[in-house]
Design goal:
alpha/beta, two-stranded antiparallel ribbon, 47% helix, disordered N terminus
């Protein structure tokens, strides 16, 4: 069977066009995925810094209602692993505006962040409440804007009746894990952090403390008052010092 050379050229061109279309579609899907998760790789001063947002409520082992704005820990953890293994990404910026959420999921993300070799910085915008506190202090340096707030309180019981001593013991150990993690990754002592957690008279029908940006820095919980440019400048400095 003989094939005209012109027809063969057309077939090859169509195949190449099909491959290009598939590649473009793949790039569009990857771009859409990055956009939807709020993760965008940006370049500043020639360095590639990845921005990862933790917003809304941190979703853990249970799926929250669809109307809730959530950050799913099963999405965040693989991203952190990929960032740590990437040869292109030189720094990681975590932007926080969260009300808290699943304690174990939030603490798992915080533990992973604290063990990364990639230079990391956190920036608290709006709020870094509840389990958002360990997340904020998990990076190599933490920043907070003046208008942001952070709520420090004991582990929530979610209305459950603690009918057996083992259940109460579990919550106490979980709370100790949070206290120790925060004390080890910030300038605040474990005793001072517990004092903030157990303070009465500030929260209605609850115990705890609400800190604004200035209060979070003065307490030693957050390293520095600052914004986006400050966090990026810190990361670029870390990258350049690592290259020298």
């Amino acid at each position: 069977m003989f094939i005209d050379s012109n027809e063969e050229t057309k077939v090859n061109n169509n195949q190449e066009q099909g491959n290009d279309d598939c590649q473009n579609q793949d790039e569009q899907v990857r771009g859409a995925s990055d956009f939807e998760t709020g993760s965008i790789t940006v370049s500043k001063d020639g360095h590639f810094i990845h921005c990862l947002t933790i917003i809304g409520q941190i979703e853990g082992h249970y799926i929250l209602p669809s109307q809730n704005k959530t950050t799913k820990y099963e999405h965040v953890i693989p991203q952190l692993v990929a960032i740590e293994e990437s040869k292109e990404i030189e720094g990681l910026l975590i932007i926080l505006n969260t009300v808290g959420g699943d304690v174990e999921a939030g603490l798992a993300i915080a533990e992973l962040l604290s063990t990364m070799k990639t230079p990391t910085a956190s920036l608290v915008l709006g709020g870094g409440h509840s389990i958002g506190v360990p997340l904020a202090v998990s990076c190599k340096k933490s920043f907070i804007v003046p208008s942001a707030t952070m709520t420090v309180h004991p582990v929530r019981m979610n209305g459950l009746v603690l009918g057996v001593p083992q259940t109460l013991s579990y919550f106490e150990k979980m709370q100790d894990r949070i206290v120790n993690f925060v004390a080890n990754n910030s300038k605040i002592s474990a005793d001072d952090f517990r004092t903030l957690m157990m303070k009465t008279g500030e929260l209605i029908m609850d115990v705890g403390t609400v800190l604004d940006g200035d209060g979070a820095v003065k307490s030693g919980l957050i390293d520095e008052m600052g914004g986006l440019s400050d966090a990026l400048d810190f990361l670029n400095k870390c990258i350049e010092e690592g290259e020298n």
